[in-house]
Structure prediction request, 145 residues.
Amino acid sequence: MRLIFIVFSGILFGFGLAMSGMLNPFKVQAFLNVFGAWDPSLAFVMVGGILVTIAGYWFVFNRGKPLYGNEFNLPERKKLDIRLISGSAIFGIGWGIGGLCPGPSVAILSSYFFPSIIFTISMMIGIFIGSKSFQPDKLRVNETI
Prediction:
């Protein structure tokens, strides 16, 4: 059942990315260009995602424990620090230049393999360098997947 839920959520996420236009780097760049020819249509995607997340968090946290785990694994660091702020800024710069973030960069491989493969490989190299430069927070992979 757990595997079926993972597959279903991946298919739903990918379908939503394609349907909303998040796989079009030019549409994403137009959304991020608030001082130029701004395209606010992706704001509806963002608001929709926030509303679904709020409802999902309310439902899940009122259960007391996750459906497929023994406990919630929430981030322990809660303060804003230079690492979080600078990492967010670098992510935003990359997102603005490339028009893609990690989820869409993998999803777009199915329809625009080249040059999106170059972006995705470059992103993975950046993730590797970043994870070796700064020790990421511990992930409990066996409990989250």
Summary: The helical segments are 2-20, 25-32, 42-61, 82-98, 102-107, 113-133, 141-144.
